[in-house]
Amino acid sequence: MLESVMKAWWDSSHMAGGNAAYIEELYEAYLDDPKSVSEQWREIFDQLPKVNGVELESKHSEIREQFRAMAQMGPMSRVSAAPAGSSASDLKQVKVLQLINAYRFRGHQHANLDPLGLWKQERVRDLEPSHHELNESDFDTIFNVGSYAIGQETMPLGELFKSLNRTYCGSVGAEYMHITNTEQKRWLQQRFESVQAQPTLSRDTKVGILKGLVAADGMEKYLGSKFPGAKRFSLEGGDALIPMLKNLISHAGSNGAKEVVVGMAHRGRLNVLVNVLGKNPSVLFDEFAGKHDESLGSGDVKYHAGYSSDFATPGGNVHLAMAFNPSHLEIVNPVVIGSVRARLDRRDCKDGSAVLPVTIHGDAAIAGQGVVQETFNMSQTRGFAVGGTVRIVINNQVGFTTSKIEDARSTQYCTDIAKMVQAPIFHVNADDPEAVIFVTNLAIDYRNTFKRDVVIDLVCYRRHGHNEADEPSVTQPLMYKKVKKHPVARQLYADQLMAEGIIEKHEVEKLVSDYRAALDHGACVVDEWRPMTEHSVDWSPFIGHDWDTEYDGALSLDKLKELGERICHFPEEFALNSRVKKLYQDRAAMIAGDKKLDWGCAELLAYASIVDRGSRIRICGQDSGRGTFFHRHAVLHNQEDGQTYMPLQHVSDEQGPIEIYDSVLSEEAVMAFEYGYSTAEPGCLTVWEAQFGDFSNGAQVVIDQFLSSGEHKWGRLCGLTLLLPHGYEGQGPEHSSARLERFLQLCADHNWQICVPSTPAQVYNMLRRQMVRPMRRPLIVMSPKSLLRHAQATSSLEELAEGQFKNVIGEIDDMDAKKVKRVVMCSGKVFYDLLDQRRKNEQDDVAIIRIEQLYPFPHDEIAEVLKPYQHVKDWVWCQEEPQNQGAWYCSQHHFYAAIPQGTKLTYAGRSASASPAVGYVSLHNQQQKALVEDALSIKK
């Protein structure tokens, strides 16, 4: 409706495309103050939002969009003369408003951001009055400043020009005009322009900033003299990070935050651990000296370590957690966000106010690593939102040895990636710590107000090479000539405060000497440090338990039926898809005992039993609500209105919460998020499900550096469950194998469980075991595809009620063990192919044994199952995967240990292959038939 009215008005007026910019600026001024435009224009704009006397329910931003659209109807040339009916003063006024807008859009390009003065910014003509047909003769003329939030309606142009430069071209370069939300832009303009980006700070605040700089510089110099040549990835050049973080935590605590979770790579990490989180310096010095607690696992380098403490703020103590981080620089970001989501869920905080995530990036890494984009993309989605993240970039202007922008990225700024989520970006000169504090407070307030990400680009430099043993002048000779002559931030700021009369020279010297003495003493150097209280999650119930810990997983048949009826119930008026309705009718029959349970029914019963005991469940994957293979349908969709209903959320009045999300199309960031969630919430069954098991390849860094080794490196427990569809169904190389061999290769120190369940009862008891047993370690599941609807892959309610997952399943046919001449061991779906063919062959001399848990290998259970076959000399391991993949190479030492001594173990399966599977169904069937026949054929 609005569009048609606007077009009719436009067509009948003199306001063609050439004058579009002029009209838009006038309209902007009118929105801020109707009196700022002439009466004639005011009358026109007053009429815009009405049709036949009825006000339109349209946002002003939509009206402006109509101006832009109409402008495309004619040539878009800059206005050179006032349109008919406009005065010269009106035109000048519009030019002034254009100048203000130019500074808002592009002022950052002329800001004083680089401490070394090496940045060569191109001339931005938009920031020159002459570009807007204004000159010095206009400087004394008083103009209306429109929405420029300086606190006065009018200013002489000369004063306005100076004010714009102070606000947008000083030590802060603000990028926010890419944000489409007018309220957010107005809020930022008010905060920036009202103080011209230069707020007044108290003496105590300034002295506090200096103390932070003294600590940052003192720590690095101390380590450099005490451990010369040792890698520490120093913060020198980015010293402002220390007062910045301390102020950030204090400001967050004053605004209601109870926890702050920090993720950062190695640059400056040791400094932050000691000077912000309060890690005891003596402990760090012992780590430099190479001392090691023998009770720990493998350990990790000191600049990967995490830490936790409490920090006193005006709003009360805030719990701090520094996430452990491997050398894959940006992978910690989704881990932090996942941990924050778990903490928010535990606190039942829906808006993110109670827990603040802070991620600290390098300039090369934030632009160069794709997990950053994945994490930004998750930031506003239902399953991953945390109320916004404060992202800080330690911008050294060099990545390892790459400093040329054309080699490092394809954008002007390393932070341009943040524009994809319309995050405001504050570039700030790290040698101006007061400006750093200003943007830090602004960032926290923006995040808390709008629940969105915000980025601070701390433009600094790196005083040494990538590490302290490097010689950076080899590759950056000009930069390091500057660096060697450049004073440290502590000295620059101390000189500033002495010039202001804030502090005396002897006081500065005392701050430096006192900090050095505190390091010598070895005690905590953070005044705000407090002993941890109740903030962190309690892992104590899960420590000291191993695989053989007894647990009671049994449920009565009556309880199972009660839960089954609940998960089959949905509102009568809920219109289901016909196929889904049939599936739920079948499930009701299964619960009633009229049919055996299939995989989906048993899986949902497991979830129902877990939430019924009060535990939380979180399931996430690219198709987890429905299930990629159309088997789960835990989330029902009304075919009439699109509403959803989850029966699992209606199991009982006192049940635990359950969330099932179809995730963004990401593996790496999403799995890392779920890992982070799991490390912060041991009372939750946290599940990441691959659409196809092969797709976990995209998250290999998470599997290698966190899941498989996190406990051994860092003592970090985690109960994350991975469901990885696996099975050879003739669907080609990328839809067959979940790469079982890769997981098995990483097995050691009882670091995780690898299971290949083959029946609904097994998956039910496996999932329950993961929560009922008082132990938390990752569970890797090679989950099925065809078995989801296989006629023989069914179970009874009685089998579920047994309550125990069977690591090994023996022969199921009534067979005389004495007649057996060959025993075939296998896992997963191939069992059913073997069983079907053996029955067709009417063989009674080959036994088939299923190993359902490949790691930790169940030596005791398999010994019990194999007792009747000690006379057998012919043993076979059968698998669907090629010989160089699957379980054969990684587990055959376990197979040899299981069979009687002196007997023969052979392989039946596909030949070694560079590809996981063939792409032709006919060839697949041929291979499958051959491997089954090979496994069952007794050689004479």
From TrEMBL:
Belongs to the alpha-ketoglutarate dehydrogenase family. It is an enzyme of class 1 (oxidoreductase). It comes from the Bacteria. Its cofactor is thiamine diphosphate. This is oxoglutarate dehydrogenase (succinyl-transferring). PANTHER family: 2-OXOADIPATE DEHYDROGENASE COMPLEX COMPONENT E1, 2-OXOGLUTARATE DEHYDROGENASE. Keywords: Oxidoreductase, Thiamine pyrophosphate. E1 component of the 2-oxoglutarate dehydrogenase (OGDH) complex which catalyzes the decarboxylation of 2-oxoglutarate, the first step in the conversion of 2-oxoglutarate to succinyl-CoA and CO(2). Its EC number is 1.2.4.2. Residues 597-790 form the Transketolase-like pyrimidine-binding domain.
